[in-house]
Amino acid sequence: MLKIEGLDVSYGAAQVLRGVSLTAQAGQITCLMGRNGAGKTTLMKAIMGLLPPGAGSIALEGTLLSDLPPHEVPKQGVGYIPQGRRLFGELTVAQNIEIGLMTRGGDAALREELLEIFPRLRERLGQRADTLSGGEQQMLATARALALRPKLLLLDEPTEGLQPSMIEVIRQVVLTMRDRGVAVLLVEQRVDAVLDMADRVFVIEMGANRDEMDRATLRADPGRLRAHLGV
Amino acid sequence: MDFGPYLMLAMLEGAVLASVLALMASGLSLVFGVMRVVNVAHGEFYMLGAVMAWAVTSFIGGGPALAFIAAAILAPLLVGGLAAVADMVILKRLNYDPERTIVATIGLLYILQQATLMTYGADARPVVPPFNHRIALPWVEWGEGGLSFYFPWGLSTTSYKLFVIGAAVVLIAALRLFMTRSKAGLIMRATQLDGEMATAFGIPVERVYAAVFGVGAGLAALAGVLIVPIQQAHYLMGGDALLLSFIVVIIGGLGSLAGTIVAAVLIGMSDGIISVFFSPTLAKILATLAVALVLVFRPQGLFGGKGR
Lengths: 231, 308
Ligand SMILES: Nc1ncnc2c1ncn2[C@@H]1O[C@H](COP(=O)(O)OP(=O)(O)O)[C@@H](O)[C@H]1O
Ligand SMILES: [Mg+2]
Known about the structure:
By secondary structure, chain A is an alpha/beta fold.
Protein backbone atom coordinates (compact mmCIF):
# COMPACT_ATOMS: atom_id res chain seq x y z
CA MET A 1 0.00 0.00 0.00
CA LEU A 2 2.43 2.68 1.25
CA LYS A 3 6.06 2.20 0.35
CA ILE A 4 8.74 4.67 1.40
CA GLU A 5 12.29 4.10 0.24
CA GLY A 6 15.52 5.88 1.13
CA LEU A 7 13.86 9.12 2.16
CA ASP A 8 16.00 12.16 2.97
CA VAL A 9 14.33 15.31 4.31
CA SER A 10 15.99 18.52 5.47
CA TYR A 11 14.89 21.79 7.00
CA GLY A 12 17.21 24.17 5.20
CA ALA A 13 20.71 22.95 5.98
CA ALA A 14 19.64 20.64 8.80
CA GLN A 15 19.04 17.11 7.56
CA VAL A 16 16.40 15.41 9.70
CA LEU A 17 15.55 12.18 7.85
CA ARG A 18 18.36 10.00 6.54
CA GLY A 19 17.40 7.28 4.10
CA VAL A 20 14.23 6.23 5.91
CA SER A 21 12.33 3.24 4.51
CA LEU A 22 8.92 2.10 5.69
CA THR A 23 5.89 0.20 4.46
CA ALA A 24 2.29 0.10 5.59
CA GLN A 25 -0.25 -2.48 4.49
CA ALA A 26 -3.99 -2.15 3.92
CA GLY A 27 -6.03 -3.50 6.83
CA GLN A 28 -3.07 -3.26 9.20
CA ILE A 29 -1.92 -0.90 11.90
CA THR A 30 1.66 0.17 11.40
CA CYS A 31 3.19 2.00 14.32
CA LEU A 32 6.02 4.45 14.10
CA MET A 33 8.03 4.94 17.26
CA GLY A 34 11.06 6.93 18.27
CA ARG A 35 12.13 9.40 20.91
CA ASN A 36 11.20 13.06 20.78
CA GLY A 37 12.95 14.74 17.89
CA ALA A 38 13.59 11.46 16.07
CA GLY A 39 11.74 12.74 13.00
CA LYS A 40 8.31 11.08 13.23
CA THR A 41 6.32 14.24 12.55
CA THR A 42 8.75 15.16 9.79
CA LEU A 43 8.09 11.81 8.13
CA MET A 44 4.31 12.35 8.33
CA LYS A 45 4.63 15.78 6.75
CA ALA A 46 6.86 14.41 4.04
CA ILE A 47 4.24 11.78 3.18
CA MET A 48 1.69 14.59 2.88
CA GLY A 49 4.01 16.43 0.51
CA LEU A 50 4.36 19.33 2.93
CA LEU A 51 8.14 18.89 3.00
CA PRO A 52 9.98 18.13 -0.24
CA PRO A 53 12.20 15.05 -0.13
CA GLY A 54 15.88 15.56 -0.92
CA ALA A 55 16.16 11.94 -2.03
CA GLY A 56 14.10 8.77 -2.05
CA SER A 57 10.50 8.03 -2.95
CA ILE A 58 7.04 7.74 -1.41
CA ALA A 59 4.54 5.59 -3.27
CA LEU A 60 0.91 4.76 -2.56
CA GLU A 61 -0.48 1.80 -4.51
CA GLY A 62 2.16 2.44 -7.17
CA THR A 63 1.44 6.20 -7.46
CA LEU A 64 4.50 8.28 -6.64
CA LEU A 65 3.18 10.73 -4.06
CA SER A 66 6.54 12.45 -4.00
CA ASP A 67 6.04 13.51 -7.64
CA LEU A 68 2.63 15.11 -7.05
CA PRO A 69 1.94 18.71 -6.05
CA PRO A 70 1.23 18.69 -2.29
CA HIS A 71 -2.50 19.38 -2.56
CA GLU A 72 -2.93 16.30 -4.79
CA VAL A 73 -1.64 13.94 -2.08
CA PRO A 74 -4.82 13.97 0.06
CA LYS A 75 -6.87 13.49 -3.11
CA GLN A 76 -5.18 10.10 -3.50
CA GLY A 77 -6.88 9.12 -0.25
CA VAL A 78 -4.39 10.10 2.41
CA GLY A 79 -6.04 11.37 5.59
CA TYR A 80 -3.86 13.27 8.05
CA ILE A 81 -4.52 13.78 11.75
CA PRO A 82 -1.58 16.00 12.69
CA GLN A 83 0.13 16.34 16.02
CA GLY A 84 -1.58 19.10 18.02
CA ARG A 85 -4.75 18.65 15.90
CA ARG A 86 -4.28 21.81 13.80
CA LEU A 87 -7.99 22.51 13.34
CA PHE A 88 -9.22 25.58 11.52
CA GLY A 89 -9.88 27.25 14.85
CA GLU A 90 -12.00 30.20 13.71
CA LEU A 91 -14.21 27.99 11.57
CA THR A 92 -17.13 26.04 12.98
CA VAL A 93 -17.20 22.32 13.61
CA ALA A 94 -19.46 21.92 10.56
CA GLN A 95 -17.07 23.92 8.37
CA ASN A 96 -14.04 21.90 9.48
CA ILE A 97 -15.87 18.71 8.49
CA GLU A 98 -16.98 20.38 5.25
CA ILE A 99 -13.35 21.01 4.28
CA GLY A 100 -12.57 17.34 4.82
CA LEU A 101 -15.58 16.35 2.72
CA MET A 102 -14.53 18.68 -0.12
CA THR A 103 -11.18 16.94 -0.53
CA ARG A 104 -12.60 13.88 -2.28
CA GLY A 105 -16.22 14.80 -2.87
CA GLY A 106 -17.71 13.31 0.29
CA ASP A 107 -21.51 13.54 0.39
CA ALA A 108 -24.22 14.09 3.00
CA ALA A 109 -24.38 10.38 3.77
CA LEU A 110 -20.72 10.32 4.73
CA ARG A 111 -21.19 13.42 6.87
CA GLU A 112 -24.06 11.69 8.62
CA GLU A 113 -21.91 8.61 9.20
CA LEU A 114 -19.18 10.73 10.81
CA LEU A 115 -21.68 12.40 13.11
CA GLU A 116 -22.93 8.95 14.12
CA ILE A 117 -19.39 8.02 15.11
CA PHE A 118 -18.92 11.30 17.01
CA PRO A 119 -22.33 12.35 18.38
CA ARG A 120 -20.64 15.03 20.51
CA LEU A 121 -19.73 16.88 17.33
CA ARG A 122 -23.34 16.92 16.15
CA GLU A 123 -24.31 18.88 19.27
CA ARG A 124 -21.63 21.44 18.49
CA LEU A 125 -21.87 21.86 14.72
CA GLY A 126 -22.27 25.64 14.86
CA GLN A 127 -19.58 26.18 17.47
CA ARG A 128 -16.10 27.47 16.66
CA ALA A 129 -13.53 24.69 16.64
CA ASP A 130 -11.20 26.54 19.02
CA THR A 131 -13.91 26.58 21.70
CA LEU A 132 -14.03 22.76 21.91
CA SER A 133 -12.40 20.76 24.68
CA GLY A 134 -9.20 18.86 23.87
CA GLY A 135 -11.00 15.58 23.40
CA GLU A 136 -13.65 17.12 21.20
CA GLN A 137 -10.94 18.76 19.12
CA GLN A 138 -9.30 15.39 18.60
CA MET A 139 -12.67 13.95 17.53
CA LEU A 140 -13.06 16.78 15.05
CA ALA A 141 -9.53 16.34 13.69
CA THR A 142 -10.33 12.67 13.25
CA ALA A 143 -13.71 13.32 11.60
CA ARG A 144 -12.10 15.82 9.25
CA ALA A 145 -9.57 13.23 8.12
CA LEU A 146 -12.12 10.42 7.80
CA ALA A 147 -14.24 12.75 5.67
CA LEU A 148 -11.93 12.18 2.72
CA ARG A 149 -12.55 8.41 2.82
CA PRO A 150 -8.88 7.62 3.42
CA LYS A 151 -7.14 4.55 2.08
CA LEU A 152 -4.18 5.55 4.20
CA LEU A 153 -4.72 7.23 7.57
CA LEU A 154 -1.85 9.05 9.27
CA LEU A 155 -2.23 9.70 13.00
CA ASP A 156 0.49 11.68 14.76
CA GLU A 157 0.25 11.16 18.53
CA PRO A 158 -3.55 11.30 18.55
CA THR A 159 -3.90 10.46 22.23
CA GLU A 160 -1.39 13.02 23.52
CA GLY A 161 -2.94 14.79 26.50
CA LEU A 162 -6.31 13.03 26.32
CA GLN A 163 -8.37 11.47 29.12
CA PRO A 164 -8.65 7.67 29.16
CA SER A 165 -12.27 7.72 27.98
CA MET A 166 -11.28 9.79 24.98
CA ILE A 167 -8.26 7.59 24.25
CA GLU A 168 -10.65 4.67 24.05
CA VAL A 169 -12.84 6.51 21.52
CA ILE A 170 -9.82 7.14 19.30
CA ARG A 171 -8.65 3.54 19.70
CA GLN A 172 -12.03 2.22 18.58
CA VAL A 173 -11.95 4.43 15.51
CA VAL A 174 -8.47 3.21 14.62
CA LEU A 175 -9.53 -0.43 14.98
CA THR A 176 -12.68 0.15 12.91
CA MET A 177 -10.69 1.76 10.12
CA ARG A 178 -8.23 -1.12 10.12
CA ASP A 179 -11.11 -3.60 9.88
CA ARG A 180 -12.46 -1.69 6.92
CA GLY A 181 -9.19 -2.20 5.09
CA VAL A 182 -7.61 1.17 5.67
CA ALA A 183 -3.83 1.26 6.04
CA VAL A 184 -3.19 2.96 9.38
CA LEU A 185 0.13 4.61 10.16
CA LEU A 186 0.18 5.57 13.81
CA VAL A 187 2.75 7.54 15.76
CA GLU A 188 2.30 6.54 19.38
CA GLN A 189 4.46 6.96 22.47
CA ARG A 190 2.64 4.52 24.76
CA VAL A 191 4.32 1.15 24.44
CA ASP A 192 1.35 -0.78 25.87
CA ALA A 193 -1.01 0.66 23.28
CA VAL A 194 1.45 -0.25 20.53
CA LEU A 195 1.89 -3.80 21.83
CA ASP A 196 -1.89 -4.11 21.90
CA MET A 197 -2.69 -2.77 18.43
CA ALA A 198 0.30 -2.89 16.13
CA ASP A 199 0.67 -5.34 13.28
CA ARG A 200 4.12 -3.94 12.59
CA VAL A 201 6.35 -1.42 14.30
CA PHE A 202 9.09 0.75 12.85
CA VAL A 203 11.51 2.42 15.21
CA ILE A 204 13.48 5.43 14.02
CA GLU A 205 16.34 7.09 15.79
CA MET A 206 17.90 10.40 14.83
CA GLY A 207 16.13 10.32 11.50
CA ALA A 208 17.23 6.82 10.45
CA ASN A 209 15.68 3.34 10.61
CA ARG A 210 16.66 1.57 13.80
CA ASP A 211 14.45 -1.48 14.00
CA GLU A 212 11.41 -3.18 12.51
CA MET A 213 9.24 -5.78 14.20
CA ASP A 214 6.20 -7.72 13.11
CA ARG A 215 3.43 -8.77 15.43
CA ALA A 216 4.90 -12.12 16.33
CA THR A 217 8.26 -10.61 17.22
CA LEU A 218 6.58 -7.94 19.33
CA ARG A 219 4.62 -10.53 21.26
CA ALA A 220 7.63 -12.76 21.78
CA ASP A 221 9.98 -9.99 22.89
CA PRO A 222 8.28 -6.80 24.12
CA GLY A 223 11.48 -5.83 25.91
CA ARG A 224 13.15 -5.14 22.56
CA LEU A 225 10.77 -2.27 21.86
CA ARG A 226 11.12 -0.87 25.36
CA ALA A 227 14.88 -0.97 25.08
CA HIS A 228 14.86 1.23 21.97
CA LEU A 229 12.77 3.83 23.69
CA GLY A 230 14.64 3.69 26.98
CA VAL A 231 11.54 2.95 29.04
CA MET B 1 -26.11 78.16 5.65
CA ASP B 2 -26.63 77.33 9.32
CA PHE B 3 -24.43 74.94 11.21
CA GLY B 4 -26.89 72.00 11.16
CA PRO B 5 -27.42 71.79 7.43
CA TYR B 6 -23.75 72.48 6.84
CA LEU B 7 -22.80 69.55 9.08
CA MET B 8 -25.21 67.30 7.24
CA LEU B 9 -23.63 68.28 3.92
CA ALA B 10 -20.18 67.50 5.30
CA MET B 11 -21.39 64.16 6.56
CA LEU B 12 -22.80 63.25 3.16
CA GLU B 13 -19.47 64.00 1.51
CA GLY B 14 -17.81 61.97 4.23
CA ALA B 15 -20.17 59.07 3.65
CA VAL B 16 -19.26 58.97 -0.05
CA LEU B 17 -15.57 58.87 0.82
CA ALA B 18 -16.21 56.26 3.52
CA SER B 19 -18.05 54.04 1.04
CA VAL B 20 -15.30 54.08 -1.55
CA LEU B 21 -12.67 53.66 1.13
CA ALA B 22 -14.46 50.73 2.73
CA LEU B 23 -14.51 48.87 -0.59
CA MET B 24 -10.92 49.58 -1.37
CA ALA B 25 -9.61 48.85 2.11
CA SER B 26 -11.54 45.54 2.29
CA GLY B 27 -9.51 44.43 -0.72
CA LEU B 28 -6.25 45.40 0.96
CA SER B 29 -7.32 43.73 4.19
CA LEU B 30 -8.41 40.54 2.41
CA VAL B 31 -5.06 40.22 0.66
CA PHE B 32 -3.13 40.80 3.86
CA GLY B 33 -5.41 38.55 5.88
CA VAL B 34 -5.15 35.53 3.60
CA MET B 35 -1.71 35.97 2.03
CA ARG B 36 0.17 38.06 4.63
CA VAL B 37 1.19 40.27 1.72
CA VAL B 38 1.24 44.04 2.22
CA ASN B 39 0.22 45.15 -1.24
CA VAL B 40 1.74 48.56 -1.86
CA ALA B 41 0.41 48.50 -5.44
CA HIS B 42 -3.20 48.40 -4.20
CA GLY B 43 -3.72 52.11 -4.97
CA GLU B 44 -2.71 51.48 -8.58
CA PHE B 45 -5.44 48.89 -8.98
CA TYR B 46 -7.87 51.58 -7.82
CA MET B 47 -6.37 54.01 -10.35
CA LEU B 48 -6.55 51.38 -13.09
CA GLY B 49 -10.22 50.80 -12.27
CA ALA B 50 -10.90 54.50 -12.78
CA VAL B 51 -8.83 54.68 -15.97
CA MET B 52 -10.46 51.57 -17.39
CA ALA B 53 -13.85 53.00 -16.54
CA TRP B 54 -12.90 56.01 -18.64
CA ALA B 55 -11.64 53.78 -21.45
CA VAL B 56 -14.70 51.53 -21.45
CA THR B 57 -17.20 54.39 -21.29
CA SER B 58 -15.40 56.25 -24.10
CA PHE B 59 -15.35 53.28 -26.42
CA ILE B 60 -18.79 51.90 -25.70
CA GLY B 61 -21.68 53.94 -26.99
CA GLY B 62 -25.30 53.48 -25.95
CA GLY B 63 -25.64 56.23 -23.37
CA PRO B 64 -23.95 56.89 -20.04
CA ALA B 65 -25.99 54.34 -18.06
CA LEU B 66 -25.16 51.39 -20.30
CA ALA B 67 -21.53 52.46 -20.64
CA PHE B 68 -21.22 52.76 -16.88
CA ILE B 69 -22.67 49.32 -16.27
CA ALA B 70 -20.21 47.89 -18.78
CA ALA B 71 -17.36 49.69 -17.01
CA ALA B 72 -18.48 48.45 -13.60
CA ILE B 73 -18.35 44.87 -14.86
CA LEU B 74 -15.32 44.98 -17.16
CA ALA B 75 -12.90 47.14 -15.19
CA PRO B 76 -12.84 44.96 -12.02
CA LEU B 77 -12.58 41.80 -14.12
CA LEU B 78 -9.68 43.12 -16.19
CA VAL B 79 -7.84 44.60 -13.21
CA GLY B 80 -8.50 41.46 -11.13
CA GLY B 81 -7.18 39.29 -13.96
CA LEU B 82 -4.09 41.45 -14.29
CA ALA B 83 -3.49 41.18 -10.54
CA ALA B 84 -3.87 37.40 -10.59
CA VAL B 85 -1.26 37.23 -13.33
CA ALA B 86 1.04 39.54 -11.34
CA ASP B 87 0.60 37.20 -8.38
CA MET B 88 1.59 34.15 -10.38
CA VAL B 89 4.60 35.67 -12.14
CA ILE B 90 5.92 37.81 -9.28
CA LEU B 91 4.64 37.04 -5.77
CA LYS B 92 4.57 33.27 -6.19
CA ARG B 93 8.22 33.28 -7.24
CA LEU B 94 9.08 35.12 -4.02
CA ASN B 95 7.32 32.39 -2.04
CA TYR B 96 5.09 35.13 -0.61
CA ASP B 97 7.92 36.20 1.65
CA PRO B 98 6.51 39.17 3.60
CA GLU B 99 9.49 41.48 3.13
CA ARG B 100 10.34 40.70 -0.45
CA THR B 101 6.71 41.05 -1.55
CA ILE B 102 6.64 44.60 -0.17
CA VAL B 103 9.58 45.52 -2.39
CA ALA B 104 8.04 43.70 -5.33
CA THR B 105 4.69 45.48 -5.00
CA ILE B 106 6.50 48.82 -4.80
CA GLY B 107 8.03 47.91 -8.15
CA LEU B 108 4.62 46.90 -9.45
CA LEU B 109 3.25 50.26 -8.31
CA TYR B 110 5.74 52.16 -10.49
CA ILE B 111 5.32 49.85 -13.46
CA LEU B 112 1.55 50.28 -13.46
CA GLN B 113 1.75 54.01 -12.85
CA GLN B 114 4.30 54.69 -15.56
CA ALA B 115 2.62 52.37 -18.03
CA THR B 116 -0.58 54.35 -17.47
CA LEU B 117 1.26 57.63 -17.94
CA MET B 118 2.75 56.39 -21.20
CA THR B 119 -0.53 55.13 -22.65
CA TYR B 120 -3.33 57.12 -21.04
CA GLY B 121 -1.38 60.30 -20.46
CA ALA B 122 -1.07 62.86 -17.71
CA ASP B 123 -4.52 64.41 -18.12
CA ALA B 124 -7.34 63.92 -15.66
CA ARG B 125 -10.34 62.70 -17.60
CA PRO B 126 -13.97 62.69 -16.54
CA VAL B 127 -16.55 59.97 -16.82
CA VAL B 128 -20.19 60.95 -17.21
CA PRO B 129 -22.24 59.58 -14.32
CA PRO B 130 -25.00 57.17 -15.33
CA PHE B 131 -27.50 59.52 -13.70
CA ASN B 132 -26.98 62.69 -11.76
CA HIS B 133 -30.11 64.36 -10.47
CA ARG B 134 -29.64 67.13 -7.99
CA ILE B 135 -31.56 66.34 -4.84
CA ALA B 136 -32.35 69.20 -2.48
CA LEU B 137 -32.40 68.01 1.12
CA PRO B 138 -34.89 69.20 3.69
CA TRP B 139 -33.96 70.50 7.10
CA VAL B 140 -36.15 70.72 10.18
CA GLU B 141 -36.29 73.66 12.49
CA TRP B 142 -38.18 74.71 15.61
CA GLY B 143 -39.88 77.93 14.67
CA GLU B 144 -42.69 79.96 16.22
CA GLY B 145 -45.22 77.68 14.58
CA GLY B 146 -43.53 74.54 15.96
CA LEU B 147 -41.63 72.05 13.79
CA SER B 148 -41.17 73.20 10.22
CA PHE B 149 -39.50 71.77 7.14
CA TYR B 150 -37.58 73.85 4.68
CA PHE B 151 -34.95 73.41 1.98
CA PRO B 152 -31.86 75.44 2.89
CA TRP B 153 -30.05 76.92 -0.08
CA GLY B 154 -27.00 74.85 -0.92
CA LEU B 155 -28.04 71.74 1.04
CA SER B 156 -28.21 69.23 -1.74
CA THR B 157 -26.57 66.12 -3.02
CA THR B 158 -26.81 64.12 -6.23
CA SER B 159 -28.57 60.89 -6.92
CA TYR B 160 -25.22 59.46 -8.04
CA LYS B 161 -23.58 60.12 -4.69
CA LEU B 162 -26.43 58.39 -2.90
CA PHE B 163 -26.04 55.54 -5.36
CA VAL B 164 -22.34 55.21 -4.48
CA ILE B 165 -23.20 54.88 -0.80
CA GLY B 166 -25.91 52.32 -1.52
CA ALA B 167 -23.71 50.37 -3.94
CA ALA B 168 -20.88 50.15 -1.40
CA VAL B 169 -23.25 48.87 1.29
CA VAL B 170 -24.61 46.21 -1.04
CA LEU B 171 -21.16 45.17 -2.31
CA ILE B 172 -19.70 44.88 1.17
CA ALA B 173 -22.67 42.86 2.37
CA ALA B 174 -22.14 40.62 -0.66
CA LEU B 175 -18.44 40.27 0.13
CA ARG B 176 -19.27 39.27 3.67
CA LEU B 177 -21.80 36.70 2.52
CA PHE B 178 -19.25 35.38 0.03
CA MET B 179 -16.61 34.94 2.72
CA THR B 180 -18.91 33.40 5.32
CA ARG B 181 -21.37 31.39 3.24
CA SER B 182 -19.82 30.33 -0.04
CA LYS B 183 -17.56 27.37 -0.65
CA ALA B 184 -14.92 29.62 -2.21
CA GLY B 185 -15.03 31.87 0.85
CA LEU B 186 -14.63 28.86 3.14
CA ILE B 187 -11.58 27.76 1.15
CA MET B 188 -10.08 31.25 1.41
CA ARG B 189 -10.61 31.37 5.17
CA ALA B 190 -9.16 27.91 5.70
CA THR B 191 -6.11 28.96 3.69
CA GLN B 192 -5.82 32.10 5.79
CA LEU B 193 -6.00 30.17 9.06
CA ASP B 194 -3.51 27.41 8.24
CA GLY B 195 -2.08 27.12 4.76
CA GLU B 196 -0.28 23.88 5.49
CA MET B 197 -3.40 22.12 6.75
CA ALA B 198 -5.40 23.58 3.87
CA THR B 199 -2.90 21.90 1.54
CA ALA B 200 -3.23 18.67 3.51
CA PHE B 201 -6.94 18.75 2.65
CA GLY B 202 -6.51 19.23 -1.05
CA ILE B 203 -6.74 23.01 -1.27
CA PRO B 204 -4.38 24.37 -3.96
CA VAL B 205 -3.06 27.21 -1.85
CA GLU B 206 -1.21 28.99 -4.65
CA ARG B 207 -4.33 29.11 -6.80
CA VAL B 208 -6.28 30.45 -3.84
CA TYR B 209 -3.66 33.17 -3.43
CA ALA B 210 -3.96 34.18 -7.09
CA ALA B 211 -7.74 34.35 -6.72
CA VAL B 212 -7.53 36.36 -3.49
CA PHE B 213 -5.07 38.81 -5.02
CA GLY B 214 -7.41 39.14 -8.00
CA VAL B 215 -10.50 39.69 -5.83
CA GLY B 216 -8.63 42.23 -3.69
CA ALA B 217 -7.54 44.17 -6.77
CA GLY B 218 -11.04 43.87 -8.24
CA LEU B 219 -12.48 45.53 -5.13
CA ALA B 220 -10.03 48.42 -5.50
CA ALA B 221 -10.92 48.71 -9.18
CA LEU B 222 -14.61 48.75 -8.35
CA ALA B 223 -13.97 51.57 -5.89
CA GLY B 224 -12.15 53.40 -8.70
CA VAL B 225 -15.07 52.91 -11.07
CA LEU B 226 -17.51 54.27 -8.47
CA ILE B 227 -15.44 57.37 -7.71
CA VAL B 228 -14.49 58.38 -11.24
CA PRO B 229 -17.78 60.14 -12.13
CA ILE B 230 -17.19 62.33 -9.05
CA GLN B 231 -13.43 62.75 -9.18
CA GLN B 232 -12.00 62.12 -12.69
CA ALA B 233 -9.39 59.53 -13.61
CA HIS B 234 -5.73 60.46 -13.22
CA TYR B 235 -2.60 58.35 -13.26
CA LEU B 236 -1.49 59.59 -9.83
CA MET B 237 -4.80 59.14 -8.02
CA GLY B 238 -3.68 55.88 -6.39
CA GLY B 239 -1.31 57.52 -3.91
CA ASP B 240 -3.76 59.25 -1.59
CA ALA B 241 -6.17 56.35 -1.84
CA LEU B 242 -3.45 53.92 -0.81
CA LEU B 243 -2.49 56.05 2.17
CA LEU B 244 -6.10 56.31 3.35
CA SER B 245 -6.61 52.56 2.86
CA PHE B 246 -3.58 51.79 4.96
CA ILE B 247 -4.84 54.15 7.65
CA VAL B 248 -8.21 52.40 7.62
CA VAL B 249 -6.77 48.91 7.63
CA ILE B 250 -4.34 49.66 10.46
CA ILE B 251 -7.00 51.30 12.60
CA GLY B 252 -9.52 48.55 11.88
CA GLY B 253 -7.06 45.72 12.40
CA LEU B 254 -5.34 44.05 9.45
CA GLY B 255 -7.38 41.19 8.07
CA SER B 256 -10.58 42.03 9.95
CA LEU B 257 -13.40 42.89 7.53
CA ALA B 258 -15.71 44.27 10.21
CA GLY B 259 -12.92 46.43 11.63
CA THR B 260 -12.10 47.71 8.15
CA ILE B 261 -15.69 48.83 7.58
CA VAL B 262 -15.96 50.59 10.93
CA ALA B 263 -12.61 52.31 10.44
CA ALA B 264 -13.55 53.37 6.90
CA VAL B 265 -16.71 55.00 8.20
CA LEU B 266 -14.76 56.66 11.00
CA ILE B 267 -11.99 57.98 8.75
CA GLY B 268 -14.30 58.83 5.82
CA MET B 269 -16.79 60.74 7.96
CA SER B 270 -14.21 62.63 9.98
CA ASP B 271 -12.25 63.43 6.81
CA GLY B 272 -15.45 64.81 5.24
CA ILE B 273 -16.42 66.84 8.28
CA ILE B 274 -12.97 68.21 9.08
CA SER B 275 -12.29 69.01 5.41
CA VAL B 276 -15.51 71.02 5.14
CA PHE B 277 -15.19 72.87 8.43
CA PHE B 278 -11.42 73.29 8.62
CA SER B 279 -9.15 71.98 5.91
CA PRO B 280 -8.42 68.75 4.07
CA THR B 281 -4.82 68.94 5.29
CA LEU B 282 -5.92 68.98 8.92
CA ALA B 283 -8.11 65.97 8.19
CA LYS B 284 -5.11 64.01 6.88
CA ILE B 285 -2.97 65.11 9.82
CA LEU B 286 -5.56 63.92 12.32
CA ALA B 287 -6.04 60.61 10.50
CA THR B 288 -2.29 59.99 10.52
CA LEU B 289 -2.18 60.90 14.21
CA ALA B 290 -4.96 58.41 14.86
CA VAL B 291 -2.88 55.71 13.17
CA ALA B 292 0.11 56.58 15.29
CA LEU B 293 -2.00 56.33 18.45
CA VAL B 294 -3.46 53.01 17.39
CA LEU B 295 -0.02 51.63 16.56
CA VAL B 296 1.29 52.64 19.96
CA PHE B 297 -1.63 51.67 22.17
CA ARG B 298 -3.41 48.95 20.24
CA PRO B 299 -1.10 47.61 17.51
CA GLN B 300 -3.50 44.84 16.52
CA GLY B 301 -6.06 47.51 15.53
CA LEU B 302 -9.39 48.29 17.13
CA PHE B 303 -10.92 45.04 15.93
CA GLY B 304 -7.87 42.87 15.33
CA GLY B 305 -7.88 39.66 17.31
CA LYS B 306 -4.68 38.30 18.73
CA GLY B 307 -1.55 40.14 17.66
CA ARG B 308 -0.11 37.97 14.94
N1 LIG C 1 10.26 23.56 11.15
C1 LIG C 1 11.44 23.04 11.53
N2 LIG C 1 12.58 23.68 11.24
C2 LIG C 1 13.78 23.16 11.61
N3 LIG C 1 13.92 22.01 12.29
C3 LIG C 1 12.82 21.34 12.63
C4 LIG C 1 11.53 21.82 12.28
N4 LIG C 1 10.61 20.94 12.74
C5 LIG C 1 11.31 19.98 13.36
N5 LIG C 1 12.64 20.20 13.29
C6 LIG C 1 13.69 19.35 13.85
O1 LIG C 1 13.62 18.10 13.22
C7 LIG C 1 13.85 17.06 14.15
C8 LIG C 1 12.68 16.08 14.12
O2 LIG C 1 11.51 16.72 14.58
P1 LIG C 1 10.11 16.00 14.55
O3 LIG C 1 9.90 15.38 13.24
O4 LIG C 1 9.08 16.97 15.01
O5 LIG C 1 10.34 14.88 15.66
P2 LIG C 1 9.29 13.95 16.41
O6 LIG C 1 7.95 14.16 15.80
O7 LIG C 1 9.82 12.58 16.22
O8 LIG C 1 9.33 14.36 17.86
C9 LIG C 1 14.05 17.72 15.49
O9 LIG C 1 15.44 17.79 15.73
C10 LIG C 1 13.49 19.08 15.32
O10 LIG C 1 14.17 20.00 16.11
MG1 LIG D 1 6.18 14.78 16.61
